[in-house]
Structures are given as structure tokens and as C-alpha cells.
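quick one before i forget lol
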Amino acid sequence: MVSKHNPSGNKKRSPLSIFAVIGLCCFFYILGAWQRSGFGKGDSIALEVTKQADCSIFTNLNFETHHNDVEIVEPSKPKAQVFKPCDVKYTDYTPCQEQDRAMKFPRDNMIYRERHCPPEEEKLHCLIPAPKGYMTPFEWPKSRDYVHYANVPHKSLTVEKAVQNWVQFKGNVFKFPGGGTMFPQGADAYIDELASVIPIADGSVRTALDTGCGVASWGAYMLKRNVLAMSFAPRDNHEAQVQFALERGVPAVIGVLGSINLPYPSRAFDMAQCSRCLIPWTANDGMYLMEVDRVLRPGGYWVLSGPPINWKTYYQVWKRTKEDLKAEQKKIEELAEQLCWEKKYEKGDIAIFRKKVNDKSCRRNSANMCKPRGSDDVWYKKMETCITPFPKVSSASEVAGGELKKFPARLFAVPPHISKGLVEGVSVESYQEDNKLWKKHVNAYKRINRLIGTARYRNVMDMNAGLGGFAAALESPKSWVMNVVPTIGKDTLGVIYERGLIGIYHDWCEGFSTYPRTYDLIHANGVFSLYQDKCSFEDILLEMDRILRPEGAVIFRDDVDVLNKVRKIAGGMRWDTKMNDHEDGPLVPEKILVAVKQYWVGGIKGNSTSSAE
């Protein structure tokens, strides 16, 4: 019966159970002490687990960003294509000026010497080889006077132009004495005569155009006067003349005055010259002279040396009649008056004209003026027989289009195109910020590659030049920059010329107007983002490889996803590449990809990569 004082019915614990609990506690205490003494197996197991979890064993832990090493994984696509070398017959391949294709076009107005690019099915998808024995060009200024024969193995000009002192072959090099057809005694003396009329020495003249340049000795010696000359000549029977110019470290492109506009903006050049360039200035009612006028800045100078100037002395040598030559010079002078040019000088073989600063005092008899259009919309546009009007001015002393400071102040002064609001989306403030940004970028490039800014990289190209900030930050007598403004982008080439720099319009879906191996350093800022929906990355990269010298360098600046695609293709082109973070750190999606082209030449069994001698 349950007691009312103990409703649960529990009985009192016995002394035996209490002793059992105390005994178990003592047992486990002793067991634990034994384990801790080091005689138990459990301790060694615990120690091993502790060792495996110890962070100190990872001695090579890298805290740097790995984002730049991550490639886009595309499992459905094959690995990067490996591009094979082209046949050695393509060593001097110029895709848009090839002789075989050129001969299919009319010879009228030099159409056959203009750009004629291959259709998609005829494009080469291989690497253009350097000639056997190729060597790194001499550094400037030695390169002005000497070129390795192995780099441009063509001797024809040494025979054709022997009397005119263009080029001489000596041992394993070509020597350039500085002569020309109209200055066989040297370019310096010729330029001294020009400088007696034209203010070359004080920085007023900075950009110049040499039409029919030969081996560009005039441009080479103008560099001594701090003048950048854009020289051009066709790829014709005067073999490799532009190639010689670029090998010497002088700006030049393959080009011709033909049926389409020159790829330069209006009012680009401070002076232009024709030294026996044999351009028919009076043909097509003066169309070629009108094109020179378009690209000549108000107040600029035009120099003509050679036919028909000094015809009384040379008419028999030129195998032309006095009457013919006299009529040609008279026609040129009449055209010059229509263009609002004044003849400032004529002595011996040289005549110098100056374009007036505006049209207030022009005497034009119902001249055929060009219709208003985007005056710089010139890519593949037909040249017209009309005169480009001056920009409007409010006084007789005002320089049409805006007055420029003398160089070098001109380099960072605000260009008239910007101060007048002619470039959409660019203000004075944003222009100045752009200059600061590019100084920062170029300093970063120099930390990555210490050769940037030295004479090792003489010929430099900026594939998407923008406002010219890269070239301005790099400005030095040791190098020059070809500023390319893509035809599908914002037109800023006028700004670049107003800064005292040179450049050209181009579409990177096509081959550039130059020979292979003509640039030491190529800068590609945003190029592949700009063209990613326009044409193949592969085509652009193969063209870059064609114009880049062996052991030359490329700097890409673009979004990381775009650069990973570029890097994958470049991996099959015999380029060594390295991805770098943006100057502001790894979290910025824009990256810098640096590439160096390996040295290799054609004509070696298997075309394997070989080291430079």
C-alpha cells in the first residue's frame, strides 16, 4: 500500500549504488590521466589530426589576385588554334596593295595603286615570316643612316637612284647619305633653304606631308628640326621605298594621290611638299592640288621642287618643250590663286606658296566650292574637283579654324576642335582629365616594360588613339607614334593633328597600309571591344603580327573577358603573354595584357622558333 507521504512510490537509494557511481568516476579519471601521459593510442591519433589541420604547412600561399590567370572555360570549343608560318614568298606581303591584285584595276588616276583588300576567302590565316638573317634595326639616330641588308634585301634602288644619292649598298648594310632627286647634295642644305622662308625653327611648323616621298630622307632630316613628316609613296616599281623609310625609323605609309581622298582630316598639316614627286598637279582641273589644300592648315606652306619649276634649265633633260612646261607652271599658279595661296618664293629649283589664314582677302572667280559635308568623312570617299571652304571668321586677322600655339606648348594646350565644341562629348575639362589619365597609364606601362620610352621602341602605333593622350605622354625624340583613329569610332584625328601629332584613319577589319615588320611597339586600347561585333579577332591579331617586328611588344588594355579571348588566340601566334591588373587594383575589370613576339624567321627547316644572333 502506498503511503500518503510518498506519492511517487520511490524508495531510498542504497549505499551500493552510490559506491558504484563513485567507482566509475575514479576509473575514468585514471584512464584520462593515462591517455595524457603519452602511453595511449588516442593521443597519437589526435596529434596527427592536429598536424593535418595546421595552417603553417602551406608555405607558398599566394594572396595575389588570380583573376588575371582565369580563362573563359568553353568546353564545347577546341583548344587555341596554332597558326603556321606563311610561305616565304609572303615575306613582304601587303594585303591591300598586292601587285597581282592591283593589276586588275584601271590605271586611270592611279586607281590600281590604291587600296584593294582581299575578300574574306582570300585572306591569309598564317604568320608572315621575317627574312632569313633578320636583325633588330639599328637604334635611332643611327637607323636614319643605316639599314641591315637582311631586313630589306632589295638592291634595285641603289642602281636606279645612284646618281641622286638616295641609297648605297655597303657590305651587309644600306647607307642613306641623305640625298634626294632634288637635293643630291643632302637634305640638310635643302631644308636650310626652305627655312629661310618658312618658320621651321621656332615651332610654328610641326606637322608636314611629303607626297611621293621616296625613302623619306626629307622626313628623316626634318625630325632634326622637331618636325613630324607624314610621308607616303605607292608600292610600285621603286621597290620597297616606304619599307626603307620605316626601317630607318621615319614615319611613312603606302599611299597615293589617286581617285579617293587622302586618309587625313582637313587642316591637318602645317606644310606639305612635293620634291619631284611627279604628281600631275594640273590634271583633272587641279583635283590633286585641291586635295592638298584640304589637308593644309590655313597659314600653311606648300613647297614644289621639280617639274615644272626651273623649266628653262631642265626642259631638255625632262624631254619636254618650253611651251608645255611654261603653260603647266602658269596653270599651277592660277590654281594656287583660286585656292587662296600666295607665292612667297621662287629661286632655282624651289617654289614656295603660302595658304592665307582665312578667305577675307581671297580673289576667287566663282570658284567651285565643295558642298557642305562631314569634311573629315574621307575613308574610301571619291576625291572631288572642288575647293574646301575655310571655316568662318569674324575678322581679317583671325586664323580660320583656330590659331595654334607653337610646339611644344601646342602638345598640351586645348585644341581648337575642343574649345569650339566640335568633338561630341568632349569638353575642356574632360580633355585635361584625359591627359592626366594617360600620363598615369604610361607610367604604369613603363613599370611593366622598362624599354618603353627608350630608343629600343622607335616606331610606335596606337591602334585606337582617342585624343592622342598616349602619344602625348610618350612624346620624345627617341620615338614617334602613328595615331590611328578607327573609322567606326569617334572622329578625333583633327584634335591629334592640332596637338602637333600625326595619325591616320583606318578600319581594322582590313590590312594597314604598311609593310610587314614596321613597328616596334603597338598599343591597343579598347580596340577589341570596339570591333567585337564587326570582324574577327583572329584577323585583327594576325594583322598586328604582320606589322610587328620580331621581339616587338604589344600592350592591350581592355575588359578582362575580351582580353581572355585575345590571349587565347595569341597563344597560337608565337607570342609570349602576361596579364596584369589595372593600375587601380585587381577589382577593376579592365586589365592590361602584355605580349612579346618571339624571334623566328622563314626559310629554316620546320620554321621553328630560333634565337636572334
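fyi The radius of gyration is 35 Å.
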